[in-house]
Amino acid sequence: MRWLLLSLRIVLGAVFVYAAYTKLSQSWLLFAMAINAYKVLPTWAVEVVARTLPWFELLLGILLVAGVWLRYTTAIAAALLSVFFVMMLRSYGLGMEIDCGCFGLGEPISPKTLTRDGLLLAGAFALTWFSWRPLRRLARATA
Amino acid sequence: MRKFLRSIPVLFLATTVLLGGKFEGVPTAPVKIDLYTDFQCPGCRELHMGTLQFIKNDFVKTGKAYLTYHDIALPQHPYARTAALYALAAQQIGKYDEVADILFARQREWGNNGKVDATIAEKLSPADMTKIRALIADQKIAAQFEADQSAALKENLTQTPTIVFHHKLKRYPVTDGDYTFMKRFITELLTK
After folding, report:
1. For chain B, is the Cβ count within 10 Å smaller at the N or the C terminus?
2. Which of A58-62, B161-165, B182-186 has the lowest average pLDDT?
3. Nearest Cβ partner of B172 from A30, A37, A43?
């Protein structure tokens, strides 16, 4: 089980680092256009997210791989992936023919991208659950 | 001689703009834009009525970008192919812009009843309509349409509108039809 969780954490961290790399290796304006296509944020917020999110993903990915502050990093990763997943589901449900913006350019939202993000989300939730487990055990023992 | 050479792009620009064809701008412009649209797609309508006009005014007419239209038909749009064939035929007689304008403006109407011909006939003269109908009967128009469909397939394109920017051998496909960030992106490409 321990090895499975370790692999999952490294894979999730690597995915975040890769996602950050694909965005940072090109103009932030392209990512801004991908976010803007979702039509959920005002222009100023799109700009803030487009400029900061890739760096945040990079930091989160590195921390996940390194195994630092795991309770918080796994919870943040799960929260972030939940937001992405809900946004993608909403756009797909509304029939919006847009790019997912997950890993650079030219990847439309499709059942394939939804499944992939759903699996990542499930993995992040599993990691969060197991990283908080020792604390829950301790709380039960001291109650 | 130099003066003549310098005037070539201007002549190109004037010709393409005047002809109202499927290409607009100076072919030697630093940024190339491939626009993939489907006449029945609502996002393409928005793009055509708004952003496209801004792109034309700010970058195409100023010689900074060269625009190519690709009219494709997605499987979920039953009349898009017919509309694209009419637009292609209209291009042959220099009436592409007029036909594209009316098709997008009244998209909901003909998209429901399939009356593409009647919709265009309200905008063009009977003489032009006769020419267009004759051109559609010609297989060349269908072949041109298939070429655009193939170009879309080659780009791995499954959604419309898709705008593919080309600059210095790099390609950037974008699906957001909003002009806010697009203008800044094209400007950024031009400064590279």
Report:
1. N
2. B161-165
3. A30
ipTM for the whole predicted complex goes beyond 0.85: no
- Tell me if A108 and B175 make a contact (CB, 8 A cut-off): yes
A26: which chain B residues are within 8 Å (Cβ-Cβ)?
172
pLDDT at B12: 44
User: Are A98 and B158 within 8 A, CB to CB?
Assistant: no
pLDDT score for B13: 44
Q: CB contact, 8 Å: B108 with chain A?
A: no
A72 C-beta neighbours (distance < 10 Å), count? 13
Contacts of B187 in chain A (CB under 8 A): none
B174 touches chain A (CB under 8 A): yes
Pinpoint the alpha helices (H) of A1-143.
2-24, 28-36, 43-66, 70-93, 111-142
Mutate to test the interface with B, among A22, A31, A51, A97 (most CBs of B within 10 A): A97
**pLDDT tens digit sequence for B115-172:** 999 999 999 999 999 999 999 988 889 998 998 888 888 877 878 889 999 999 899 9
Per-residue exposure over A110-136, b if at least 16 CB sit within 10 Å of its own CB, e if not: eeebeebbeebbebbbbbbebbeeeee
Q: What is the rounded average pLDDT of the residues A69-81?
A: 95
Handedness of CA A39, A41, A47, A51 (dihedral sign): negative
At position B168, the amino acid (one-letter code) is K
